[in-house]
Structures are given as C-alpha cells and as structure tokens.
Amino acid sequence: MLSNDIISQILLGFISFLSNFISALSGGGAGLIQLPALIFFGLPFSKALATHKVASVALGFGASLPHLKKNNLQIKYAFLILISGLPGVLLGAYTSSILPNNFSTTLLGFLTLFLSFYSIKQKKLGSTNKKIRINKLRIIIGSLGLFIIGFFNGYLSSGTGLFVTIWMITIFDLSFSLAVAYTLIFVGIFWNGIGALSLGFKGNIIWSYIPVLILGSLLGGYFGAYFSIIKGSKFIKVVFELVSFSVGISLLIKAFL
C-alpha cells in the first residue's frame, strides 16, 4: 500500500519544489526529478506519469506570474504554440495507448543531448531578442516543429518543454528568458493540461499526492521564474544546457533498462 504519512508528503513537496524550480529556470525538465521520485515512492510508471502531469500544470501557473508582470509576451507566439502544438499533443496521447515507446524514448534522449551540445556550441544563442519579420515560410516551419514537439509531449511527456524553448529561440530569435516564459506558460498550462486530462480519464492519477505536488510546483515555478528574470538569459542558457544534458541521459537510461 502506498504510504501517505507526513514524512512522505514533506519529502514529495520538497522534491516537487526543487524539480519545478529548476524547470522554471531552464524551460523544461521537471520530470527529470519528479517523475522518478514518484516511481521510487511505489507508483507504477503509468500512474506516476499521470500524477506528475497533473502537478506540472501548476508549474505553468506558478511561473506565469513573474513573467506576466513584465508584460513582454506577444499574442502571435502564444497563439502559434497553442494552435500548432495542441493537435500534436492529442495525437501523441492517442498514439501512446497503442504503440510501444522504447524507440521514441531513445530517439528523444539523443535529441535532447543534441540540444545541450548545440546550445554549448552556439555561444550567442538566445542572447538577443530581435524584432524579426515573421514571414509565411517561418510561420509554416515554426508550426510544423511545434506540432512534432507537441506529438512527443503527448506521447512521451518527458523533456519536450526544452525543445519548445530552443525551437522558439532558433526560429523566432527570442532571448532565452522570453522563450522560457512562453514554454512555461503555454506548454506548462495548456499542453500539459490536455495531457493530464487524457491520462486522468484513464483513472491513473493518485489524488492523495496531488495537493502537496501542486503546492511544490506552484512555489517552485514562481521562485524559479522570478530568479530567472533577475539572472537573465546568459544564466538561463547555462542551466538549460545542464538540464537538457541530464534529461537526455535520463531518457537513455530509461530506454535501455
């Protein structure tokens, strides 16, 4: 039987705060700590994933407050993330119920490692926030990429926020801090919300863990986002590289075990 004693709840709350604090700094990767922790506490993978997904929505709400106060988000990017990514999330969630995911987990692990090395090599990546002209070709490429990332979000969940962050930087030349803001708010709340609903309908959520996980996510997301705004894009870039490297290794270990 799953333990619900006070010590377990406190430990889960701390783990949730830490993982979501790091995620709010880097633009993804909360599952790197929180998801394995739930499995360690005795949950089977399907229930751990569903419970983590619900709690991760709170990260978006917590992180949105500091970023919304800056009032530097543009509706065109928010709309693009939602309209392009949500269909992919739904398709991915459906696909996850009918296909094995070991191959995709391995692929996502290698791609996430690539993100880390790519960011390290591109010294000026995400250091500017230029007002570039958004032409039709750029919109099509951006939308296609977000749809594919959304598919992986619904299919595998782990690590996909990092891809949205780097995609928004690469295609639309956003700064790291601004790209992270879009990821945390629109991926964290809406993409993960859809994923949480789809998994919740299957009855996999362990509701007794949700309150403390949500509290940790809200606080971790808020303070992580606040800290990232203070430190700026250069600091976020370093954290992104560390987290993406760790997530990539974690996914590969999961795939081969």
Question: Could you characterize what this model shows?
Answer:
- The chain has about 260 residues and is mainly α.
- Helix content is about 80%, strand content about 0%.
- The protein is built from ten helices and no strands.
- The protein has helices at about 5-25, 30-40, 45-70, 75-95, 100-120, 135-155, 160-170, 175-200, 210-230, 235-255.
- Helix 1 runs antiparallel to helix 2 (about 30-40), helix 1 runs parallel beside helix 9 (about 210-230) and helix 5 runs antiparallel to helix 10 (about 235-255).
- The chain is globular and about 55 Å long.
- The chain starts with 5 loop residues before the first helix and ends with a helix.
- The mean pLDDT is about 85.
Would you spell out the secondary-structure blueprint of this structure?
Elements: H1 6-26, H2 31-40, H3 45-70, H4 75-96, H5 102-121, H6 136-155, H7 160-172, H8 176-200, H9 210-231, H10 233-256
